[in-house]
Design goal:
mainly alpha, 2 domains
Amino acid sequence: MDLTITLIGIGVLIVAIWVFLELKRFRHRLLAIFLIGLLLFLYFSFTFVFHNKPLDLSSINGISQAGGTYFAWLGSVFVNFKSITTNAINMNWAANTSVNSTNSSG
């Protein structure tokens, strides 16, 4: 029930952003797509981080704790992305390109 209300709320926000920016014609279409993508990313990542964790958004302390947890997770995502990118850049992609490792004997 709670998920349905949240998805309806996000849907209404997406439609409102889209309609608001369509009023200015096609000038700001990229901004609308960016904002919609940002909203979807924030919703799904927040849901993923707090899937099985108790969450108290009724107090300042709970909101602060949830924000700290979320931004710690987001920071670790960027650190992991940086590590994967660095490892991919440092790989020797040209090594053994002429060797076919498929065993064709049958």
